[in-house]
Design goal:
mainly beta; Lipocalin; ten-stranded antiparallel β-barrel; two-stranded antiparallel sheet; 3 helices; 15 strands; about 10% helix; elongated
């Protein structure tokens, strides 16, 4: 309770005293920006099950890397990007199987709304049993993973600017810190004969798993700036209220659970009114716990881009409306 009360006081103090100051954030209202970008993303799902003999069976399902190359353009907070998937992959057996990863959004003042879409057909499965020292790895083409999510961030301090530190739409001119609150909803959908349970005595396969969740996550963000060079980071921990639907090979199960969730994002780069270069690394950790079973997912995204800014007095006239 004391920790929660301290956090509330810090948030209120940040909101009152951290007024917007152009010495901290330069808004590029009259500039048009173009940039090439290179991205790599993947998802790993973890499943742990305690057998009747108290041994633990651990399974890992890893998607292939989704590598893409493209370009983008933006004006103030409006932008788009067009990218093409590269033919190279870290798992050659999954080269011709569908993979897709999207993460993007729109910000307004201290709010940032984000949408996430992930889709993978086929994974690499790795099974380890703690009691028998059994280990096996194989390609599973029948397993499909889908994720759809929407979330909204609210940053309490105006001296910190999310667009400047992670999207390069603006420029963070001085170091700043801000607590934030992340709220949203998420949906997982996976199919395939997977999640081998109770391997000592019998085989039970989950053929379908659906997860609907409502989530809330407080966190902190900061940016360190020195002569146009910057390093930004943000991290949060929260809770997810889950409705889980599981279909087994003979029956189905529907239950509710509460699980912890985490996130961590970091960026490093150089940005001025003419051009920028940046590298962004993002991690998201989701968890679902029910009974003796635990299902987790880690989503990773690495993004690199170099951009050029152009002044435009005509665009500047409408920038104040965006």
């Amino acid at each position: 309770m004391r920790l929660v009360f301290s956090f509330i006081l810090f948030v209120l103090a940040s909101s009152v005293f951290a007024q917007f100051d152009t010495n901290y954030v330069h808004k590029t209202k009259n500039q048009f920006m173009v940039y090439p970008l290179l991205e790599s993303a993947n998802t790993t799902m973890y499943y742990d099950y305690t057998n009747k003999d108290n041994s633990v069976t651990s399974l890992t399902y890893t998607s292939r890397d989704f590598n893409s190359l493209g370009f983008g353009a933006s004006f103030y907070r409006l932008g788009f990007s067009l990218s093409f998937e590269l033919p190279s992959t870290n798992i050659p057996e999954l080269k011709d199987h569908k993979a897709f990863n999207f993460k993007g959004g729109y910000s307004y003042r201290r709010l940032y709304g984000e949408m996430k879409i992930r889709s993978y057909n086929g994974v690499e499965e790795h099974i380890v049993n703690s009691d028998s020292n059994y280990s096996a790895t194989k390609i599973r083409l029948d397993i499909k993973m889908r994720q759809y999510g929407i979330q909204v961030y609210y940053f309490f301090a105006r001296k910190y600017n999310y667009d400047a530190n992670f999207k390069n739409y603006n420029i963070q001119k001085k170091s700043a810190v801000s607590p934030y609150l992340n709220m949203g909803t998420n949906y997982y959908f996976t199919t395939g004969d997977y999640l081998l349970s109770d391997s000592t005595y019998k085989s039970t396969f989950i053929t379908k798993f659906e997860n609907y969740s409502l989530r809330i996550m407080p966190g902190f963000s900061f940016s360190l700036v020195h002569k146009n060079f910057y390093f930004a980071s943000m991290g949060g921990i929260g809770l997810s209220l889950n409705r889980n639907y599981l279909r087994f090979n003979k029956n189905s199960e529907d239950n509710w659970s509460i699980s912890p969730i985490y996130e961590f994002n970091s960026s490093i780069g150089y940005s001025n009114t003419s051009w920028f270069i940046t590298l962004v690394l993002s991690f998201e950790f989701d968890n679902v716990v029910y009974g003796t079973e635990h299902l987790g997912a880690v989503h990773k995204l690495l993004s690199f881009k170099v951009g050029k800014r152009f002044n435009s007095k005509y665009l500047g006239k409408i920038g104040k409306y965006l």
